[in-house]
Amino acid sequence: MNRQLRDIETKLKLLSEISNYADHSQRSLSKKLNIALGLANSIIKKFLKKGLLKLSEAPLRRYSYYITPKGFVEKTKLVSDFVFSSLEFYRNARNDYENIFKKAKKENKNIILVGLSDLTDIAIMASKINNVKINHIYSEDSDLEHYCGVKIKKILGASIKKKKNLFVLTVSHKNSNILKKFKSEGYHLIKPNFFFWD
To answer: What fold characterizes domain 88-195?
Structure first.
């Protein structure tokens, strides 16, 4: 997921959590949303400053956050932004995978997807649209044998000919470890453009 989409999602989740249950501390919000305490603090401060939230003191030095009418308008806007950004992200990801697969088809290479995530779904859909066969999915963490009709392998194996195969990244978390592993073992891993990192 790109940074802008993740930012919108975090803000939306925070507003939703507060609208559902006002008696949250910054610490409880950071745990609930699985974000750093400093990030929760920063977002809440911005929302208070913009008038999207109100703060009221409760007994025992506790605070409650309440969403203001302006905050509800912002929440609606964030939902719209999230849907738009999600669809834009999906289109970009699908186009990147389609371009990679078309090139692989021309070069007569086997396609091996690396990692199992929501991106794998997009890649498999892109392959079906372009009538390109996915050889298999490489995923050390998966307990599955197949995913969407594609075989999953936990080990790359010495039998895999590096030049005949095209390895395509389909996971956004833990990818620095995957990149190091592939580089150290001499495999070339294709990274779609939407990742925005080298």
So the answer is: Rossmann fold (3.40.50)
